[in-house]
TrEMBL record:
Biological role stated in the UniProt entry: Catalyzes the phosphorylation of the position 2 hydroxy group of 4-diphosphocytidyl-2C-methyl-D-erythritol.
Protein's GO biological process: isopentenyl diphosphate biosynthetic process, methylerythritol 4-phosphate pathway; terpenoid biosynthetic process
Family the entry assigns: Belongs to the GHMP kinase family. IspE subfamily.
Organism per entry: Rhodovulum marinum
Top-level class of the enzyme under EC nomenclature: transferase
Residues the record lists as binding ATP: P91, A92, A93, A94, G95, I96, G97, G98, G99, S100, S101
The organism's place on the tree of life at top rank: Bacteria
Keywords from the named record: ATP-binding, Isoprene biosynthesis, Kinase, Nucleotide-binding, Transferase
GO molecular function, one term: ATP binding
Entry annotation: catalytic residues: K10, D130
Reactions mediated catalytically: 4-CDP-2-C-methyl-D-erythritol + ATP = 4-CDP-2-C-methyl-D-erythritol 2-phosphate + ADP + H(+)
Protein's UniProt name: 4-diphosphocytidyl-2-C-methyl-D-erythritol kinase
Length: 281
């Protein structure tokens, strides 16, 4: 039996940094959604645990014990085997949780393959602050350092999303370290929205507190935000996570596709992807 697991890209629609723990980790308040673009895992029974990384974004991704997929597998104990193929489509170190979503997909896939329960929440969190939110991808509010997950709002039935990464890797620890204020206001309760325009209007009042320090590390982020904002029908452009990927919100997928074509033609070296929200069953 071969198990397939989808690892969707994560978008932090908002990312408020509200405090810092004694161990240095930051307290977050973030509205997280997932999209129908992502990495794909295939997991087959085998005597040994092996990982092969393939796909258009495989270059530079470790295929040894540093890969979060293998770290996830180790949480089940070291005595089990599986042949795992990770088909990489998402850019790494990009603020869209590629590695974290891969780890969560590996946990789901291996639990099914090995007929085992998922590891306990503390073990899942030890893989990375973003892994718990990726376990059952849908609209979620993420708080604490990433361990407190509550149901998110109802998303508009119709909307389009655009993801753009300029090919500059941004270091998450360095961005957090460069934050000047660590005690910012939390996010108000996200109410749920009937249209993409109403949602964009609400989001425009919120923040990504990591944008300013990320832009210092990668000034091209400003250009990416402006290029997205200038496309026809763009309701809002923002940065996701610690960057450098930025997203745009549109009324429809068609508008997002048109914007993607335009941006890709003008900046062929950038990663550009139109998408729709993704929700796990
Ligand atoms: C910033 C966020 C927002 O969703 O997304 P990305 O930019 O990674 O996509 C996440 O919190 C990232 O989660 P993740 O990438 O899993 O973080 P980890 O591996 O646990 O931590 C990487 C480093 O980021 C910093 N870190 C991370 C999470 C957090 N709540 N506070 C922190 O200070 C720490 O310096 C830590 O050493
Ligand atoms: N499966 C994986 N995919 C991508 N990067 C991985 C993976 N496993 C480990 N890494 C390492 O994690 C780092 C952060 O990658 P990623 O999780 O994609 O960042 P971000 O959460 O900022 O989007 C990369 O530089 C890479 O070396």
């Amino acid at each position: 039996m071969t198990v397939e697991a989808f690892a969707p890209a994560k978008i932090n629609l908002t990312l408020h940094v509200t405090g810092q723990r004694a161990d240095g980790y930051h307290l977050l308040d973030s509205l997280v959604i997932f999209v129908d673009a992502g990495d794909r895992l295939r997991l087959s029974p085998a005597d040994d645990l092996t990982l092969r990384v393939t796909g258009p974004r495989a270059e530079g991704v470790p295929c040894d014990g540093r890969n979060l997929v293998l770290k996830a597998a180790m949480l089940f104990g070291c005595e089990r085997g599986a042949a795992i193929t990770l088909d990489k489509h998402l850019p790494a170190a990009a603020g869209i949780g590629g590695g974290s979503s891969d780890a969560a997909a590996a946990l789901r896939g291996l639990a099914e393959l090995w007929n085992l329960p998922l590891p306990d929440p503390a073990a899942v969190l030890s893989l990375g602050a973003d892994v718990p939110v990726c376990l059952r991808p849908r609209a979620l509010r993420m708080q604490g350092v990433g361990e407190t997950i509550t149901e998110g709002p109802r998303l508009p039935e119709r909307m389009g999303l655009l993801l753009v990464n300029p090919g500059v890797e941004v270091s998450t620890p360095a961005v957090f370290k460069a934050l000047t204020c660590k005690t910012n206001a939390p996010m108000p309760h996200p109410p749920g929205w009937s249209s993409a325009a109403v949602m964009a209007h609400w989001l425009a009042e919120q923040r990504n507190d990591l944008e300013t320090p990320a832009r210092r590390q990668a000034p091209v982020i400003r250009e990416v935000l402006d290029v997205i904002a200038a496309t026809e029908g763009c309701l809002l452009s923002r940065m996701s996570g610690s960057g450098a990927t930025c997203f745009g919100i549109y009324d429809s997928r068609d508008e997002a596709e048109d914007a993607a074509r335009l941006i890709a033609a003008g900046a062929p070296q950038w990663w550009v992807q139109a998408a729709s929200p993704y929700s796990a069953a």
